[in-house]
Amino acid sequence: MNKRTTEILVGLFVLLGAAALLFLALKAANLASFTTSGDTYVVQARFDNVGGLKARAAVRSAGVNVGRVTGVTLDPQTFQGLVTLEISKAMAFPKDSSAKILTSGLLGDQYVGIEPGGAVENLSAGDVITQTQSAVVLENLIGQFLFNRAADSGSSQGE
Which of 81, 22, 92 shows the shortest CA–CA distance to 57? Predict the structure, then answer.
């Protein structure tokens, strides 16, 4: 191989590496959706605590991506977190479906999980999911555990 061919191959290898890093960065930051599912409809859900849920987080049902979180705001009247969900029209969930904020793994990203209900009518654009379960905050669980341990040790010393 001559020097020019080697330089061209090295340049192509560097460009391929840069493209791979860009793809990985976009996927890790959840900025690019490389699987577009077509038409969507927008629903909202109210949570007492949204934890670390962010816009562009996944919406899943039975572990399958069915949509995306498009916004997380605070409702000034109820002081609840108002989460806006964009769901694929191919997925028609019953009106009495419930939404939970879940975590991928022990310390992974948070996402919204939808559990279908049994109603005949389906959710439509603009509906609000009323049955929700807020995010589990790890710090609150640790605090409750330590408080219960302290209370148990205090009551056993008094006997």
Answer: 81
